[in-house]
Amino acid sequence: MSPITRLQPETRLCGATIHNGLVYLAGQVTEDPSLEIEGQMADILRQVDALLAEAGTDKSHLLSVQLFLADMDDLEGMNRAWDHWLDRDNKPARATVEARLADPAWRVELTGIAAIP
Amino acid sequence: MSPITRLQPETRLCGATIHNGLVYLAGQVTEDPSLEIEGQMADILRQVDALLAEAGTDKSHLLSVQLFLADMDDLEGMNRAWDHWLDRDNKPARATVEARLADPAWRVELTGIAAIP
Amino acid sequence: MSPITRLQPETRLCGATIHNGLVYLAGQVTEDPSLEIEGQMADILRQVDALLAEAGTDKSHLLSVQLFLADMDDLEGMNRAWDHWLDRDNKPARATVEARLADPAWRVELTGIAAIP
Fold this sequence. Notes:
The structure is a homotrimer.
Chain A: E1 4-9, E2 14-19, E3 22-28, H1 37-54, E4 62-69, H2 75-85, E5 93-98, E6 108-115
Parallel strand pairs in A: 4-5
Antiparallel strand pairs in A: 1-2, 2-3, 3-6, 4-6
Protein name (chains A, B, C): RidA family protein
């Protein structure tokens, strides 16, 4: 079988798992919950870049992204950070819904799947 | 590596991505938000059929579906459209939860993964 | 193409689908909604173990898990069952958000993807 590689292990989950040419991201949240929505999303996208780099890939290989916004009114602010970061020639599938998150200071959580070239 | 093919690109996402024999659907919502729940779901399933056809597959190859209902009270109406559309010999894994969606007129959003034969 | 195998078919979905060395879990909920959160989560994890065994794999091969809590205040209780069950040498990526579920007695729903060795 293909081996499973695990990145950034925490107490009860890993930041990402790698298997058979795909990387599965855990829910990514900001490391600085004092930030407003655009700052939190930019911070998350930096973490995604770092995880993808550690997995040997990058944002141009994202296949699917799911976004959970604590408040859908933050959609515009979240999208500003997304639009700034996005590789417009290589856009993933994406779904965005509202959901209360584990820490009330978190505004957005991102999960997704990327291919490894 | 397997190449990534992108279907129905929009400003900040693609309607679907294809990689290594799988198609990853973006969150699909109705094109006619004036419809009630059963009509919205039927409209979404028509879009899913079209995306899957463009990817060279069909609903009998759906592996996993996630449904986000703006109001869980719409579960029965959503399921009427689902039951009418479903290939009963080839049912996917499915999860359905409630979540506020980006447009308050949207009643349901669908995402999922399908195999390409 | 790789064939698709379907486990535990129900009226409108399968409990899991298998394709190309991966198993895709449907949303798993408790079979005993009278249980409180920790009991419901332990019950769900027993069902996950059974589904994974039927697919020829186990919890050490989980790649990605998504958890929907009906009330985020149940996070600690859910995590007690998770921590008791988790293979600490083989932790999946995980995302946990709050979402109202189809039955108001359900406290948590789990979905995910596992590799088959």
